[in-house]
Structure formats: structure tokens, C-alpha cells
Amino acid sequence: MRSIKFSLSKKPVNAWDAAVLLVEAYFSAKLKSDQVLDLLPNDFIGQRRASCQSLFLGALRHGHRSRAAFKPMLRKTPRPIVEAILLVAGYEFYSEPSERHPKIVHHAVERSKKLVNRFEQGFLNAVLRKLPAAIEKIDPDSSTADFYSHPDWLVNHWSQSFGEDATRELLEWNQQIPEQTIRIYDPPKRLPEFLTPTPWDGFYRISRSVDWQHQVAPLLDGSAAYIKDPSTRLASALLGPSSGMDVLDLCAAPGGKSYDMAHQMHHSGRIVAVDLPGSRVPRLRENFSKLTALGLEAEAVECDVLQLNKAILEERNLPTRYDGVMLDAPCSNTGVIQRRTDVKWRLRPKDIQECAQLQLELLIAASGFVKDGGRLVYSTCSIEEEENRSVVDHFLHTEAGSQFRLEDQSISLPWETGHDGAGAFLLIRTN
Ligand SMILES: C[S@@+](CC[C@H](N)C(=O)[O-])C[C@H]1O[C@@H](n2cnc3c(N)ncnc32)[C@H](O)[C@@H]1O
Q1: Residues 169 and 308 in one domain
Q2: 427 and 375 in contact (C-beta within 8 Å)?
Q3: What is the pTM of this model?
Q4: Is 401 touching ligand 1 by the criterion CB < 6 Å?
Q5: What's the pLDDT tens digit per position in 221-251?
Q6: ipTM of the assembly?
Q7: Which among 175, 251, 340, 350 counts the fewest CB atoms within 10 Å?
């Protein structure tokens, strides 16, 4: 990873070159797209950063289609930097009118002189000239997965789960650039002009032209607002904690669900949050310090939920049973592909079943901390039945699950709800 930092610190690096280096880093290092974006130096700001981010994410969002178009023109696998140039230019061809295409080719060929060897420059020159027509030729009916830039297996899997029409709506949804929404817990009477209301109470759309540093960041200083998608409200609404309760938030980092629950509890009571030791915990703690400032008792415990036990909680003078337990499980993320476009590149067919197995184990572990009569919410940002209702049904057939009943559920399928996908299930402990 030092090499990309080094290349980007050489000035001046324009947004296009930086985007190519980020795409190369994405495919060379096994990092997520937001981790790759974090490699941009701190002084890479303003319009340059925004253009770089848009080209990088656009290249990933439309990359399967670009790849399908240039693959037949390759005799051998190109170096990742060469492929990165093709993916960035492929996105530009897609997003700009055809009269601009010759300029895009010229620009890419010129910039490539700094990035690749002479042989590769010649190769790029030849392929880039043919690429717009090859992209144009991809047919939405006979090559649906390529056209909507998704892996074949995922499109086949969804077609079986949801049918072809719904799958096409989902693919179209995933290819759009996501809206950013903010949840404001106590909205002012007069909204700033860069926010517009949504159909979901307390959620506001943020204008794309907003100045994040000067207009949005001040709203996030206290605990009165949080950047989140409306789908995130479903799980906390099902758990419905109230003032004075003890709540255990499992798989809690960076604390979005805790935020909702703290407000539902009017900052009175206790939230104990658990997540794996690692890079996500500092943000959880930072968010918790904002919540405790308003009177809530809140503690973050760094621990694997599968290892969490009475002794670990007692050692910290924390309750061992809770009125409410939230389990926001790790998942395949298939409900949030519009927002996290690189999920399409990372996900493998076996991941869905592997997630489901881990989710069942986590749910069994979580159930041990619920008081008699208490509430347990199992939540994911997946739209897969295998990771949602099937996990809950399996759980109810286990020994631990036999002490619970399924009380309610909320499922969001993005093409129906108009926001991210999610599944949330409320289980009540009956004895
Ligand atoms: C969906 S994210 C949680 C989002 C969070 N609840 C929020 O609302 O901001 C899933 C989380 O599960 C955590 N995680 C995954 N496996 C875990 C485990 N075995 N024990 C504890 N946390 C785990 C990850 O570190 C990640 O933070």
C-alpha cells in the first residue's frame, strides 16, 4: 500500500490519474472501496477529490460492462494499471455524450504515457478507439448481467429468488448514484436549503452540491444527527427500547443503531455495545462519547460476540441479561450495492451460505443475553432470504431458539421501498 501513497504524493496528480491509481490499488490489494479512497492524501481535496471519487466509483459501478466489452480484444491478461485505465475510460464513455468520446480517447492515451510502457500505450490506443462501440453493442436482454454490470451468478441467483422483472428493477437501482441522507432526531422548523424532506420521518436528502465540511459537518458535531439510510430505522423501530432500559447492541460499530436507540430511550438507561477489536471501534467510542454527554450510560466492549460471556460482562460491572438485544449481523450486503458498488466485485456465490451460517451462530449467542420477556432483534442489510427469514427459522428450531417466538418483521427490497435493502426480525423471549 505504500506504493500508491507514494505515487499520489508526487505533485501535481490530477483527478483522472489518481482515479486510475485507485482502481489499480482496488484490484491489486484486497481492500474495500472506502479503504482505497482513504489512501488519498489529506491535501487531495475539493473538486479534485470529488472528481477522482466519482471516476473511481463509476469505474467500479460500470466495470463489468466495460470489461465484457474489452475482453474479446485482449490476447493476454493486461497489467492491473492497464485494466484500470480501460475501466476509468469505459465509465467516461458511458457517462458522457458520444461527441465527447474522441476527446476521452485522446486524453486517456496522453495520460497513459506517464503510467504504462510504450507497448501498452499502443495497445491502449487501439482498444480505446473500439471500446465505445463495443460497450454500445451489449444488449440488455441477451446480456443482462453485462449490460447492468453485475456478475452473472448474482443475476441468476436473484432471478430465481425474485423473478426477472424485479431483478431488472434491482439492477437498475444498483446502477444509480446513491442519494445521501441524514437523520435529524429533532428537526428544526426551518430546514437548511441543502436538505429536503423524504417520505421517512426524520430523514432528509442532502443536496449533491453541498459543502460537506462547512454545511453538513457542523450538524454532526453533537448527537442530534447521523448520516444514514432510511432502511436503518427498521431494526431500531422493531426493538423499540424506552427510557431506563438496559440494551445490548451486538455488532455495533460504528454505532448507527445505538444512535437511534439512545434517542428512543431519551438518553436515559444503558447501552452496552460489542464489536470485534479493530479499526471500527474508535469511531464507535467517539460516537458513544457524544451519547454519554446527554446522560445515557454507554460502554463499548471489544470482543467477538461468539466469545462474549457472563464473566466478561461481570468483570466490567455490566448486566448479563438485557431488556433488549440488537444483533446487526455482518452479511453479504446485497441490499446496499447501490451505496457500496464494490460489493459486486467482492461477493462469491459461497459467501451467502457462509454468512448465513455465521449469522445463525451469532443469533444463538445473542439470544443468551435476553431477559425473560425481553426483545431480540436480528437485522441485516442483505436482501437474501437465506440470510434473513431462513436464519430466523433455523434459529427457532434450535434449543436456544425454542425459548423465543417471532413477533414481527420488516423487509426492505430497494425496488419497492426506494431506499437500501434490509431485513429485521423481532423475537420475544417467552421463558
Ligand atoms: C452491519 S455492521 C454493524 C453496523 C452497526 N450496527 C451500525 O448500525 O452502525 C456489522 C458489524 O459486525 C461486526 N462483527 C462481525 N463479526 C463479529 C463478531 N463475531 N463479533 C462481534 N462483531 C462482529 C463488524 O466488525 C461490523 O462492525
Answers
A1: no
A2: yes
A3: 0.94
A4: no
A5: 888 999 999 999 999 999 999 999 999 999 9
A6: 0.99
A7: 350
What is the C-alpha separation between 133 and 371, in angstroms, rounded?
63
164 within ligand 1 shell (Cβ under 6 A): no
Residues 288, 298: one domain? yes
Task: Record the cell numbers describing residue 127, joined without a space.
Answer: 482498444
Pocket test for ligand 1, best of 251, 358, 360 (most atoms within 8 A of CB): 251
Residue 27 belongs to domain spanning: 2-138
Nearest alpha carbon, ligand 1 atom 18: 304
Q: Rounded to the nearest whole angstrom, what is the distance from the C-alpha of residue 404 to the centroid of ligand 1?
A: 23
Q: What does the pLDDT read at residue 223? A: 85
- HEC profile for 130-152? HHHHHHHHCCCCCCHHHHCCCCH
DSSP result, 227-249: E--GGGHHHHHHH---TTEEEEE
Cell output for 287: 460516537
Same domain, 320 and 394: yes
Residues 288 and 390 in one domain: yes
Is there a single domain that holds both residue 218 and residue 155? no
284 and 317 housed in the same domain = yes
Q: How far is it, in rounded angstroms, from Cα 354 to Cα 410?
A: 23
The 8-class DSSP code of residue 203 comes to: E
- Residue 30 marked ligand-binding: no
- 348: domain CATH number is 3.40.50.150
Q: Please identify every residue annotated as catalytic.
A: 381
